Amino acid sequence: MFFEKSVNKFPSYSCLNILVIGQPHQDRDQILLDKTFWGQEVKIHYCASPQGLTRLLGAGINFELIIFDYTENISKWNSYKKILENCDNIILFTVSSKIPENIEPQLARDNVYCVPLGSKNTRHLNCSLRTIRNHILRNRKYVLNLFDKSMDEFLIGLTINNSVYHFEEVISRLLSGLSSLFDFEIVYALMKEGESETQIFRNNKETDFCSLLSSDKNINRVCEDFLEGRATYIPSEFMYKDFLRFNATPDRARILVRCFKNTEYCGLCHLLGHRSLIFLPLSTAEQKKWLFLFADKRADKPTEEICQYFEEKMPLLTGIISYLEQYWQEKTLLNLHQISLKTGRIGVWEYEVNTGKIMSSGLKALFPYLNVPDELTEWWKYIHPTDRVSFWHAVKPCIRGATNSFAVDHRLLLPENRLVWVRTIGECISRQGKYAKKLVGIGMDITSFMESEEELKNIKENLRVASELGNIGLWSWDILRNTYNINQAALEMFRMKQREGYTLEDWVNSIVPEHRELVRKELGEALAKEDGIFNVQYQIIYRGMYKKWIHTYGRVSTRDSKGNPIRISGTHVDITDRKRLEKQLNNEVIISSLYAGFARSLLNFRDEDELARMVCRTSVDILCSDFCFAGYFDPEQDKYFFHGINRKKTDKFAISFDTKELAKKEKFLYLFIKAGTPKLINDIQNEEHLLFGKIHVNRLFFYPSFTPSQDLVFVIAVNAEDNYTPSHWESIQWITSLYAQALERVRLEKQNLQKTKELEETVEKLKEALNTVKKLHGLLPICARCKKIRDDEGYWHEVEVYIRQHTDAEFSHGICPQCAKELYGDYL
Questions:
Q1: Distance between CA atoms of residues 661 and 644, nearest Å
Q2: How many Å apart are CA 416 and CA 132, to the nearest integer?
Q3: 202: phi then psi, degrees, rounded to nearest 5
Q4: Distance between CA 289 and CA 382 in Å, rounded?
Q5: Residue 379's pLDDT band (boundaries 50, 70, 90)?
Q6: What is the pTM of this model?
Q7: Where are the alpha helices (DSSP H) in 117-166?
Q8: Quick check: helix, strand or coil at residue 677?
Q9: Residue 161 has pLDDT above 80, yes or no
Q10: Which site from 60, 109, 671, 734 is most exposed, i.e. has the minimal number of CB atoms within 10 Å?
Q11: Contacts for 605-609 with beta carbons within 8 Å, 24 or more apart?
């Protein structure tokens, strides 16, 4: 395709990337990082070697400015020179003072600048950066102009030489081009005209972006609400003018999920793994509504620059789509005309009144067994004699100017006594005065319709009764002949083989054995009643796999002269969904009681594993799944713990993995846990998945949450009876949230018990230590003369003996100077 040769990617300048060859420099880098100066975010990348420079330039980053610190890289200049000479980027050399001779030849290039950078004086750098800023803006404008030119050439090119493609193929080429131009993995287009079904176009036929788009489930789709202009519930912060512009960060995702709470909406696109979304609605001249849907798994793709560009190109894109619609509508009409002539169902003719000549290339195809020339001068003789009067009475007013057109059904009597019914329709296109000069029209073979007139009368009665009763599956039983007639819708409903002639027993045998007697009884009572009303509900085996509920309603439509019923007609209505809804409502009543009991029961658990098993038992009932698992991550052990149970609660499951084991043994599950976002899969057909080595996964709902301490918990529901719906989403979200809070409570209680135990042990140790401490306190009785101390039992002790017993002090004996003088005064 031509755009792959001439169209580049949309240039995105959300951040200015600067490559510095050298070490960080505080004054210089402070100037470079000035967002006010550049008017946008700035990011600096550092490089310290020629090999690192080569690696960064090849990393796919658009470095609009390269700064080379010459004072730090003089020794490596020759290696850097070879690389920089091949760069088209803007290059700024910073030198100490005088421009070195080595770099003077480089300054001859338009994209090279040089500036002296002193240790404190940055005035020259500021001046040079102003010039470089203008250079960058000119480069961006030039690149954007080139892209804009390529974009226009691509869009206009779709309208040239497209006759070899179908309309769907042209739109697919447009979507593929937009995908390549703006680097979005998925580009879809939805088109709706009036009350017709939404038509879906893809940039890649092999990619099924959203299975709900092509399904016939009765569910509100966000993209279709945008198409119809009903998406008023989307928060304004996610809108750019009339566009949806969404980057699925965790905070934004929570806001958007919250606005869908308690509503029957489809799964959001970012929950399927696409984190960037743009919805672009438009209306064409043919009053058809279009929605272009851009999606990508990478975040931050819907930039404001892209949205502004879409807004500018909206008139051109709308004009291109309008042109293609009109062109293909005209081409379709022309093809239909050519097909009608080719297949021989319609013959086109032209009649010159004055000459009586008929020109036609279609009538011969309409009646191939009639050997007639292209110019028919004796057409009148083939009209059946009894129909010539009525034919002329229909054509005469148009020829004489009383009317401008005519239509008449008549017979042709052809060779070999062939009798053919023809409907001739004509119109006057040229008059001479008030009289017709030339007529044109068509002739249609309606023989089969006329021969079936009697049969059509019976069908008309059946259709009238069916119209009163619902017009779904039509049936009629001729009691005397025992012929049971049903239409195609009823055949498909009962999966009855197409053949001629059914009896009442053919219908009865399709009913499950336990309901056949009930149906026979109700039918007999209906035939005996005066009003002849037949009303019964029963089950049938559908495709030999499961049971469908059918509501059959009918009444006696024909009676003989004595009032006996001879024909009863009515409708078959498939009420399986209604029965399923009734069952669901009953289940919701049960689930409501389970909600209250579940919330209270969580307060009674003191162990993580017991808590997980309780979550499993409740989830399997609420989510109506074959298996449910609850698990959590223990950061102290660095392990994931899983507990599970089946619907019958006979098969219980418990296992744990460290991170490496989980990634190796349960890769399918590990991807969901690693992503950390909810995952809903209602139909796994492409490949087989085993969960924990034994559970075949057909449907899966994975929902993670986090405790207030940011520890991971999750609930997994596997293989529900029917597809998981937004109501299941709300239930599993509620269960997981309560589980996370309860797990946090259990862990805090364990921590509190452990700390309480440690505190009690510490108190006991302190008490024991306190009992062993020897201390003196209160009043001590002491002799005024000999200084002996009396103890609590009345005994007198020397001072040193008493203190040694009640403290840890020890005594050593000596003599003070005063006593020594009194005792040994003569010897001292």
A1: 18
A2: 94
A3: -125, 150
A4: 51
A5: low
A6: 0.41
A7: 123-157
A8: coil
A9: no
A10: 60
A11: 605/742, 605/746, 606/746, 606/749, 606/750, 607/746, 608/632, 608/634, 608/641, 608/743, 608/746, 608/747, 609/641, 609/643, 609/654
